[in-house]
Amino acid sequence: MRIYLVGYMGCGKSTIGRKVAEILGISFVDLDKYIEERYFKTVPAIFADEGEERFREKERISLREVSQFENIVVGTGGGAPCFFDNMEVMNNNGVTVYIAPDTDVLAARLLKSKTERPLIAGKSPDELISFINNALLKRAPFYEKSKIIIRGENNLDPQLVIDRINQFDQN
């Protein structure tokens, strides 16, 4: 079993992914952390030193590597589904779940953590909502290729994710 969680930063991929993995008794991999461990460099450092294009290549390689693992939940980076054929790789190797809370929920979560996220540092709440909406316009076509889409859940219950995966598997 391979479960890939996709969605915009702050949607809860890592938080819910850990909980789903724990309930199922399988492993959780945060793709960004995997990249950092594999390349001995933080994601922001890879971006700064090598640029986004090189980061996306490393991300692609890493995604293919974790797609060989069995019994795993993978929390992808927010941009991972939007490059190369990454969504197809995920869809061909497991169940993809797009976690799509409301924009105001994303903004509230990101405002609390903006010191950790240079992309949004210094943005006001209104600027952040506009930034998220613009990014989602570009990314949604990729996210929407997911086999399962969970919209509008503010405090997503891991059991709901598992139930939706089980329903999908039965169809």
Named CATH topology = Rossmann fold
As a percent range, the share of strand residues is 5-15%
Order of adjacent strands in the largest pleated sheet: 2-3-1-4-5
Second rung of CATH, namely the architecture: 3-Layer(aba) Sandwich
The end-to-end span amounts to 16 Å
How do the SSEs run, as a string of H and E? EHEHHHEHEHHEH
CATH class: Alpha Beta
SSE arrangement:
Elements: E1 2-6, H1 13-24, E2 27-30, H2 31-39, H3 43-50, H4 52-66, E3 72-75, H5 86-93, E4 95-100, H6 103-112, H7 125-143, E5 148-151, H8 158-170
Parallel strand pairs: 1-3, 1-4, 2-3, 4-5
Helix pairs in contact: 1-8, 2-4, 3-4, 6-7
Question: Would you kindly provide a brief summary of this structure?
Answer:
With 171 residues, this protein is an alpha/beta fold. It contains 8 helices and 5 strands; from the N terminus they run βαβαααβαβααβα. It is globular and about 45 Å long.
Task: Kindly describe this structure.
- Helix 2 (about 30-40) crosses helix 4 (about 50-65) and helix 6 packs across helix 7 (about 125-145).
- This protein has a single domain (about 1-150), classed as 3-Layer(aba) Sandwich (Rossmann fold), CATH 3.40.50.
- The chain is built from 8 helices and 5 strands.
- It starts with a strand and ends with a helix.
- Strands 2-3-1-4-5 form a 5-stranded parallel beta sheet.
- The chain is an alpha/beta fold and about 170 residues long.
